[in-house]
Specification:
The complex is a heterodimer of chains A (328) and B (146). Chain A has 328 residues and is of the alpha/beta class. Chain A is 34% helix and 24% strand. In chain A, helix 2 crosses helix 3 and helix 6 crosses helix 7. By secondary structure, chain B is mostly helical. Chain B contains 8 helices and no strands. In chain B, helix 2 crosses helix 3. The chains are: A alpha/beta (328), B mainly alpha (146).
Chain lengths: 328, 146
């Protein structure tokens, strides 16, 4: 399903990260990077929630609005019951919609938020996503201090939160269209190879987006997937070629952009709901404003993984949602 | 794309793990742990004038204490990540797994946090340790009877 928008703009963005992201190649594009992983909070979960609040505060501060000016707040994260978002929403007087699509949350929020703005039901919508490496490790893998050996295909959950403000007020970046993906079961049940789990979902969504809009891949200056990592990126390229005969040329993955893969011990690259928006709302949008890219297709990818189902040896379903961004 | 065909595509782009290198590291560190443990046994039995059996207990307690301390100080996870089974298989791995879980869940309370989660990883070691001990005892009893 593809929506085309006439009048939805990303007015402002804000990015807050942890220390590893702050030492990565995109550090100068972030609004704020913390030096530690607690941010003055007592637990990882509370720390992640603080990231969301920080991102929203910075966002509203940049554009000169208060929390009372927001009509709808949308947020999502990886934790059980999207805890980080819920606890951050306590401080927001606006309506709240919690959104979950694992690491594809950011683009699902953009698609839903843009639809609400386009329809006129809400004037200003704030979309935020977050992830915290240690909170995710605790929930999905092992205790943080355990640090068991990991395989090369493992991705490293990014720590950070990214927020953006959507409205019909004109600005330099507009949301042109969005395609909601369908859930794809690729038959892979390896929780340490999420790139392989998600690549077919990304391919399907990219193909459907191009088909629905009657476009070729050359229409876009850049296709950006969420967090496939080094190996998932190669899998997607070959999959697109074999399955659809599409040659992904102007293509990159935010998972391989967030960190310095040679220097930082992040295995196959970054992941987490914050990964795609951290890169897009900082470096990519900056490049779009400078005229480097005019049309960008952001395809955030999510592995809809449940530790229980993974232990039951079921394969992991995946989803990808695409949002087409246009510089004006 | 068929699932089996996709699996082949994934395998093509999946890097091989350095099994040989990891095994060598685990062998060397594991061996080193053995030497340290033997040294501790000799040390205790000589200086405390106790039997080897008692000195072995002292050695285990020492290794457990040091693993827990190093885990709490926050650098043992890096050593484990490097040494892999060289530190995971000995008693150090058991202590480290228990301690790291205790640290992780401390904030969720003494009973609901530490009590319920401390053996999250190492619980399996206890269960299957007991099961295999029982199995081998039965085998030994049967073989001994013959």
């Amino acid at each position: 399903m593809t929506f085309n928008y006439k009048n939805v703009y990303i007015n402002e963005t804000a990015t807050v990260t942890g220390p590893y992201e702050g030492k990565g190649p995109l550090s100068k594009y972030f609004d704020y990077s913390y030096e530690d992983l607690y941010f003055g909070c007592k637990t990882w979960e509370q720390a992640e929630s603080k990231l969301v609040s920080d991102a929203v505060d910075i966002l509203l501060g940049k554009i000169g609005l208060t929390r009372f000016d927001v009509d709808l707040f949308m947020a999502g994260d990886l934790l059980n019951q999207i805890t980080a978002s819920n606890y951050a929403a306590v401080n927001m007087p606006s309506s709240f919609a919690g959104v979950y699509a694992a690491c594809a949350t950011s683009t699902l929020e953009l698609a839903l938020g843009a639809s609400i703005v386009e329809s006129g039901f809400a004037e200003r919508v704030v979309c935020a996503t977050s992830s915290h490496n240690n909170a995710a490790e605790k929930q999905f893998r092992y205790p943080v201090e355990y640090g068991g050996p990991k395989r090369k295909t493992t991705t490293f959950t990014s720590t950070g939160s990214a927020a953006c403000l959507l409205s019909a007020k004109k600005s330099s970046i507009r949301i042109e269209s969005a395609t909601l993906g369908s859930v794809i079961d690729s038959g892979i049940n390896d929780v340490y190879h999420m790139g392989a789990v998600m690549a077919p979902a990304a391919a399907t969504t990219i193909y459907n987006h191009l088909k629905d809009n009657n476009r070729t891949i050359d229409y876009y200056d850049l296709i950006l997937t969420g967090d496939l990592g080094i190996y998932g990126k190669e899998i997607l390229k070959e999959y697109m070629q074999i399955e659809y005969g599409i040659n992904l040329k102007n293509y990159n993955d935010t998972g391989v952009m967030l960190y310095d893969l040679k220097e930082q011990p992040v295995y196959a690259g970054a992941s987490g709901p914050a990964c795609a928006p951290l890169v897009t709302y900082s470096y990519i949008m900056d490049a779009m404003k400078k005229g480097k890219y005019k049309r960008v297709l952001l395809v955030a990818t999510g592995a809809l993984m449940s530790p229980s189902m993974a232990n039951e040896k079921l394969s992991i379903p995946a989803i990808a949602h695409a949002v087409s961004l246009e510089a004006i | 794309m068929e699932k089996t065909k996709y699996k082949d595509l994934v395998n093509k782009h999946t890097p091989k793990e350095d099994v040989f290198y990891n095994a060598i590291i685990a062998f060397l560190i594991g061996g080193l742990m053995g030497i340290i443990a033997q040294g501790l046994i000799d040390f205790y039995s000589y200086y405390l004038s106790i039997s080897t059996k008692e000195a072995t207990v002292c050695m285990l307690v020492t290794l457990i204490f040091l693993s827990c301390l190093f885990t709490s100080l926050g650098f043992f996870d890096k050593l484990v990540n490097f040494a892999k089974c060289g530190l995971i298989v000995p008693i150090t791995g058991f202590a480290h797994a228990t301690m790291s879980a205790a640290l992780e869940y401390r904030k969720e309370g003494m009973i609901t946090g530490i009590g319920a989660n401390m053996l999250k990883i190492s619980g399996a070691v206890i269960i299957f340790g007991v099961v295999s001990a029982w199995t081998f005892s039965v085998i030994r009893a049967i073989v001994g009877a013959i």
